[in-house]
Design goal:
six-stranded mixed beta sheet, 19 helices
Length: 727
């Protein structure tokens, strides 16, 4: 691979389509463009994607054949559900005897509300015997006559016995409609939830298929030979063929693109990513180098869609300031209120933004336009309180926003997308400061305090829920409004914070850098070693089939004994990345990074082990009346802390000797109690990877997975085990 090759990420937003080119070897940004999203073009958003690609290649001087990787993220599926623009679903329920009662209840999905007053268009028909082709054709004809544009077949226990659903789809194939079997969307039990997930997937299927075909044809016509990938809602990408089967995986993928960018570019190992736009901030978690994922709620109901756990707060860079004591207006942006006076205070920020009010930010005004500025209060929309602060000045009416306050305090760095002249921002805050009876800096601080208080409450909740390392969790901001929230929040929280490089295009960067990802879930009561390894192998095969390089696939396996769920998440790049970076941290830099993370004097930190890609550091914490702890940090070649452990044992061995060494270690550290047998949390440093096996608590299954990880390695290859006892 040469540095001339590029990875292209395209993020299709509601208003603009952003595209970036990233050097395939160094992962450095080489170009970025923005074009209007082509919703109304005859080729739909596909036209904008190709236009963005053409401009990007022209900017970077690359040819289409130089594109090593091309992926796009889209809000199309999300918007279709939000706007109720979906296809009519024909649901064929299967069952006889007592089981028929359960499938007939699935007809109630026609009551799922898409938007206020608009429900999911669904028609239900029942089949007793899926092998009765005549009865199946009758049922299919029935829903098609009612207007069905896509078919779903669902039967109880189809994850174990899929033949019934498959027989129905085979009999219906002649209709030429897109079709989905419920067991093909998820392999988890729960007829209602499984079918609901399949039905919502089907509702967006025809529209997404049409777009996929247009984009694929347009990219091929443009001369790009690398396969087109699509952003998933869990932070990875999937092949276009997989998207055609499960378009629902693109729902909620917007926030996932941003956190993928933060994870890959900013190398976060523990912390929170805050993507701030003009109106809101999406907050997501990175714990031990992985994004936090959970089953998403769609149309007000839980689903089997695994998506980024993102919490949204209605505060962004354009959020308007609200104050007490205003006399207000009569709606829209026409009302005015009093200026000056005592007893006024900042009561809140948002949820309305300058964009909704149709007003420009005061800090971006020409200084002459702010002459004779007077504070007023308005109702941005007719039913809003008349307490939103604005300026009526020589140049018109302007909104006082979070971005104005951040610029007034000098919190927006040079070159940032949201940077304005600081003196202009101070002039914008001056009338508000006068009304509050304080100086400009204090007024700006009160504005940022009010806005970030809402964000801080969510941040504190997530740190607690995910048990993040409170001493080391960082705040990383992205999005065009990042500087209006993250820097001030970091000060308030007394926590390390920074704005991501190229924060305004962090989402397309995330698309460009994302790994191919697949998740396989099975409910297997009392799962044994062979069954767990089979699920692992299935996940690995799935990402390789979608284009991931087999030698670089990593698989994380989790076994939940309470729910009997075996989950395998496989990730891999479409090419083996050399990442020949210009800078590699030296021994001193890595030591200082570890010491800072450990909150220890570097003189008290020692090297415990290492591989060519990672160095393991540790120290000792002696505590009166309590056992001594041995906190550990694993630092990569770039000087980034990749693994935190509050107390761990570290052993160095080789791939050949590791099975016996690990058997002894696991036996020594396994805990026994009322909760049963619990193997230690085990992580292996092998080559360039940190293999995380901490999701398995049964000792023999854990050792079987470890042997599987080591099976392809040379016997003399060094292996480092980091072992944490479970409490």
């Amino acid at each position: 691979m040469t540095t001339h090759r590029i990875r292209v990420g395209i993020d299709v937003g509601g208003t603009f389509t952003d595209a970036v080119a990233v050097d395939a070897a160094t992962l450095e940004l080489r170009g970025q463009v923005k074009v209007p999203t082509s919703h109304h073009h005859e080729d739909g958003v596909a036209h904008g994607i190709v236009e963005a690609l053409d401009r990007l290649l022209e900017q970077t001087g690359n040819a289409p054949e130089d594109v090593a990787f091309l992926a796009h993220g889209t809000t199309q599926a999300t918007n279709a559900l939000l706007e109720g623009d979906v296809a009519t679903v024909g649901l064929i329920g299967i069952g006889t005897g007592p089981g028929a009662a359960f499938t007939r209840r699935l007809a109630s999905f026609r009551n799922l509300e898409l938007t206020p007053g608009k429900r999911l268009p669904l028609h239900y028909a029942h089949v007793a015997d899926p092998d009765d082709a005549a009865d199946v054709r009758r049922a299919v004809d029935e829903v098609v006559r009612e207007g069905a544009e896509v078919l779903v077949a669902s039967q109880p226990f189809s994850v174990d016995r899929p033949e019934g659903e498959e027989a129905v789809l085979e009999a219906a194939r002649g209709k030429g409609l897109p079709m989905t079997a419920a067991h093909g969307i998820t392999s988890l039990y729960g007829l209602q939830k499984r079918t609901r997930t399949a039905v919502v997937n089907a509702a967006i299927l025809p529209r997404m298929l049409a777009t996929a075909d247009l984009v694929d044809a347009a990219i091929t016509k443009a001369g790009v030979t690398s396969p087109l990938m699509v952003m998933r809602c869990d932070g990875g990408v999937m092949s276009l063929d997989e998207m055609r089967r499960r378009p629902l995986l693109t729902v909620l993928s917007g926030p996932a693109a941003g956190v993928a960018g933060a994870l890959m570019q900013e190398r976060i190992s523990e912390g929170l990513f805050l993507e701030t736009g003009g109106t809101s901030t999406d907050i997501s978690v990175v714990r031990r180098g992985k994004v936090a994922v959970r089953h998403a709620t769609i149309l007000g109901k839980t689903s089997y869609l695994s998506a980024l756990d993102v919490r949204t707060v209605g505060v962004g860079g354009g959020s308007m300031v609200r104050i007490s004591g205003g006399t207000g207006g009569t709606g829209g942006t026409g009302g005015t209120g009093g200026t000056g006076g005592s007893g006024r205070k900042v009561t809140a920020v948002g949820p309305r933004s300058a964009h909704i009010a149709g007003l420009p930010y005061a800090c971006f005004a020409d200084p002459d336009d702010l002459r004779d500025a007077a504070l007023a209060t308005v109702s941005p929309l007719a039913d809003d309180p008349a307490d939103y602060a604005v300026l009526d000045a020589a140049g018109g009416r302007f909104a006082i926003t979070m971005t104005c306050a951040a610029n007034a305090l000098g919190r927006v760095p040079e070159g940032d997308f949201a940077r304005s002249d600081q003196e202009t921002a101070k002039a914008a805050l001056a009338p508000l400061a006068a009304a509050l009876g304080v100086d400009v800096a204090t007024a700006a601080t009160q504005v940022l305090d009010a806005g970030t208080a809402q964000v801080k409450a969510v941040v504190d909740t997530l740190i607690s829920e995910y048990r993040l390392d409170k001493d080391n969790a960082v705040l990383v901001g992205g999005g065009g409004g990042a500087a209006s929230v993250t820097p001030h929040l970091a000060v308030v929280c007394e926590r390390e914070g920074r704005i991501a490089a190229h924060s305004e295009v962090i989402s397309p960067i995330g698309v460009a850098l994302a790994l191919v990802r697949e998740q396989i879930e099975r409910i297997i009561p009392g799962a044994g070693q062979e069954q767990i390894l089979a699920v692992r192998a299935e996940a690995e095969r799935a990402v390789v089939a979608q284009g991931a390089a087999a030698d670089g696939v990593e698989v994380e396996v989790t076994v939940d004994p309470q729910t009997s769920t075996v989950r395998a998440v496989a990730t891999g790049a479409t090419e083996l990345r050399t990442q020949d970076r210009a800078h590699r941290a030296d021994d001193g830099e890595r030591l200082r990074a570890a010491a800072a993370s450990l909150k220890a004097d570097p003189a008290e930190v020692r090297v415990l082990a290492g591989t060519p890609s990672h160095t393991v550091y540790g120290t000792e914490l002696r505590r009166r009346y309590r056992a001594t702890r041995h906190p550990v940090r694993v630092v990569d070649a770039d000087g980034v802390v990749r693994l935190h452990s509050p107390d761990a044992r570290v052993e160095t061995t080789t791939a050949g000797a590791a099975p016996q060494v690990l058997a002894t270690l696991v036996d020594e550290v396994t805990s026994y109690g009322d909760g049963g047998v619990r193997a230690p949390a085990l992580r292996l440093l092998i080559g360039s990877r940190i293999s995380d096996l901490s999701g398995v608590v049964e000792p023999q299954s854990l050792l079987a997975l470890a042997r599987s990880e080591l099976s392809s390695r040379a016997a003399d290859e060094p292996v480092v085990a980091v072992v944490e006892a479970r409490t």
